[in-house]
Design brief:
This protein is α/β, with parallel strands linked by helices. The protein has 4 helices and 9 strands. Bound molecules: inosinic acid (IMP).
């Protein structure tokens, strides 16, 4: 390993990583609460969790283990046009769902809502597929950044508008495996 890789492997020595915004313990606690809420709200039904790749994979994995109901999974991957950090609202579906949503209780699991444009587009697209219900569980909501206000049934944490990484969130595919959410202070494209 060279020096740069060494630093990146240790969050406290990587100069691009700033303060912890949500700790591992807080994530664990809040994900358990959300799982409990979802269990209560969906009792008697089999929700279909729709994860938005790649950012939501870790949250979805942990959340689903806190839902004490039969659940099913599907995934979608989207790429948004715009810079690496600012979404334009024009979204391309890179990987579509495998399952038919007709009559299903769909719960979209999203990593972070910034402008809200990506989610807004997705919800319109999914609503057109005639689910019985369509709700969103977003881990993070950036305070005051929304250009549109997609309906969010469940929100993990409201955070300041800094760019953050970890727990599934990346910069150029790095840092997704950090166990906590941290401010990213390095260069952004
Ligand atoms: P929106 O369309 O502006 O709400 O952007 C949502 C998408 O942008 C998220 O699903 C993420 O993929 C990405 N994103 C927005 N803010 C951040 C951040 O702070 N860190 C990592 N990805 C982010």
């Amino acid at each position: 390993m060279d020096g740069a890789d060494d630093a990146a492997a240790d969050p406290d020595r990587d100069p691009a990583l700033g303060e912890v915004v949500v700790s591992e313990a807080d994530l664990r606690g809040r994900v358990a609460e959300l799982g409990k809420e979802i269990t209560g709200d969906y009792r008697g039904r089999t929700p279909l969790l729709v994860g938005v790749l790649k950012g939501a994979f870790m949250f979805m994995s942990d959340l689903s283990r806190q839902v004490e109901l039969p659940v099913e999974f599907d995934f979608m991957a989207v790429s948004s046009y715009g810079s690496a950090t600012k979404t334009s609202g024009v979204v391309r579906i890179v990987k579509d769902l495998d399952l038919d949503l007709t009559g299903r209780h769909v719960l979209v699991v999203e990593d972070i809502v910034d402008s809200g444009l990506t989610l807004n587009y997705l919800l319109k697209n999914l609503q057109a597929r005639n689910p019985a219900s369509l709700e969103v569980c977003a881990l993070l909501l950036k305070e005051g950044q929304q250009k549109v206000e997609p309906p969010l049934r469940y929100v993990g944490f409201t955070i300041p508008s800094d760019f953050v990484v970890g727990y599934g969130l990346d910069v150029a595919e790095r840092y997704r495996n950090l166990p906590e959410i941290r401010i990213y202070e390095g260069a952004l494209a």
